[in-house]
Every structure is written in C-alpha cells, then in structure tokens.
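Kindly draft a sequence, keeping tokens residue-aligned:
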Amino acid sequence: MQAEARALITGLDLASQLGIPLSCMELDAQVLLHFIHTGSSPWNLVYLTRSCKSLLSPSCNLSRILREGNKVADSLASFAHAHRDSMVFYSEDKFPTC
C-alpha cells in the first residue's frame, strides 16, 4: 500500500511541476482509494494519504480501475521493477512497449 501511495504522490508531484492539470486519476488500489476519500487510514499511511489528498486538485476525480483494464500502468511498473533506474518519459514514443 505504501508503494502505491508513493507512486501516486510522485505522479501528482510531477504533473504539478510540469503544469499538467489533472481532471481524473484511476487507481487499481481500492483500499488506498478508500483511505484517500474518507481521510481515515492506518497510522503508518496517514502521512502518505494526506499528502496524496493535498496534491489532488478539488476538481480531480479519483476513481477505481480494475488491474486488468490498466495494462499500460502494469507494464510500466514491471519495466521499472526490472530496470531499477529512475526514468521519466515525456512523450509516448519513448515508452517501453506493452
């Protein structure tokens, strides 16, 4: 759960730094989504969930997507796990193939 929260924070922070307005975000971590929406989470996730909530624009819709429908994110996560280097992709043509 901490990894998903940290990934969300990193993505929200990067979007903010690049000036990209977000109207929606999809997560496959239903429990994290619940913690962010309710503001209630275990003590070890309180800071992370509050950070997520503070980085989200009030107009940004946070919703759940099934892991099976999130193949691009799953492929990027597998790629990142295999390579262990910090990378930022600024255009789709630089993405690894799914």
